Amino acid sequence: MKLHELNALPEAKSRKRVGRGPGSGMGKTATRGQKGQKSRSGASISPWFQGGQTPLYRRLPKRGFNNARFSVRYATINLSDLNRYFKDGDVVTPEILKEKGIIKNQLSGVKVLGNGELEKKLTVKATRFSSVAVAKIEAAGGKTEVI
Prior knowledge:
- This protein is of the alpha/beta class.
- The model has no long low-confidence stretch (mean pLDDT 88).
- The protein has a domain at 73-146: CATH 3.100.10.10.
- The longest helix has 9 residues, at 131-139.
- It is elongated.
- The chain is built from 4 helices and 6 strands; from the N terminus they run αβαβαβββαβ.
């Protein structure tokens, strides 16, 4: 093997210098062709752009599986609301909350959150409780029951 028989590494390949005069063979339009969107500076067309035609992803019907219809959503209520609307010793149920207009819909159930302070002794029946809410209700002398 001799020096002139060595192949150049692909990394060592010199890059193409365009727009350096007519003698280079890549002058004037700098290999971009003439006119049109792609010949302009700053031109970048997204790969899914189809020239203003309605794109394929919008023409095809949307089908398939989606977990959204199986999502579980709870009506939420804070301890500050319970403190405002109920008296000492009351029993709080989702039905009573709906009657009083505190919650609009029960959805998949009612979740009690621990925002605010509770100074009343209440028995709260709900689908779910946050750990902070349970601690605050029991500290006030009340009870929590999971339905």
